[in-house]
């Protein structure tokens, strides 16, 4: 019996580890690429499909009217004009389409776009903190 137990133990320790491949997604609200869904800021399941979000502000927007965001995502065409992208100065989250930004602020003649209203609030309290970052 000890031999069988030892063989079983060897089989368990030499088994291949689970795949470590990261699954990526695109936030349906902002269009932001999420390189690793395990680090997404939330997820929702709608009609059997899981949607992942780039920031905490996107999930409630999606949950309120998912069809709005699903139609936006699926109706995009290759010939559509490219919309200017930006990066949230607080979280460094890429905003693929500034027309879908959660909020925006003006500071020293420049427009800053935000992934969520929380970031806008932090920025508005101390814009210099976020605009003087070294890149």
Tell me the Rg in angstroms: 21 Å
What string, H for helix and E for strand, traces the elements in order?
A: HEEEEHHEEEEHH
Shape: elongated
The N- to C-terminal Cα distance equals 63 Å
The overall strand count is 8
Strand order of the largest sheet: 1-2
Helix content: 25-40%
Number of domains in the coordinates? 1
Treating each run of at least 4 consecutive H or I residues as one helix, how many helices? 5
Overall pLDDT metric: 75
Beta-strand level of the residues, as a percent range? 15-25%
- Stretches where pLDDT is under 50 for at least 5 consecutive residues are 1-22, 75-83
Q: Could you say which structural class the secondary elements and strand pairing correspond to?
A: alpha+beta
Major sheet details: 2 strands, antiparallel
Describe this structure in words.
About 30% of the residues lie in helices and about 20% in strands. With about 140 residues, it is α+β, with helices and mostly antiparallel strands. The protein has one domain. The strands form four sheets. Strands 1-2 form a two-stranded antiparallel ribbon. Strands 3-4 form a two-stranded antiparallel sheet. The chain has a two-stranded antiparallel ribbon with strand order 5-6. A hairpin with a 6-residue loop joins strand 1 and strand 2. Helix 2 crosses helix 3. The longest helix is centred in the first third of the chain and has 12 residues. It is elongated, with a radius of gyration of 21 Å. The protein starts with a helix and ends with a helix. The N terminus is likely disordered.
């Amino acid at each position: 019996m000890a031999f069988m137990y030892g063989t079983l133990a060897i089989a368990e320790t030499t088994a291949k580890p689970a795949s470590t491949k990261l699954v990526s997604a695109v936030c349906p609200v902002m269009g932001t690429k999420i390189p690793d869904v395990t680090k997404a800021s939330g997820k929702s399941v709608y009609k059997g499909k899981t949607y992942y979000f780039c920031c905490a502000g996107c999930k409630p927007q999606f949950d309120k009217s998912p069809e709005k965001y699903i139609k936006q995502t699926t109706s995009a065409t290759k010939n559509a004009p490219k919309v200017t992208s930006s990066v949230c100065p607080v979280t460094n989250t890429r905003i693929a389409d500034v027309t879908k930004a959660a909020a925006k602020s003006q500071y020293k003649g420049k427009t800053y776009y935000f992934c969520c209203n929380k970031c806008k609030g932090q920025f508005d309290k101390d814009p210099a903190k976020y605009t003087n970052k070294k890149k």
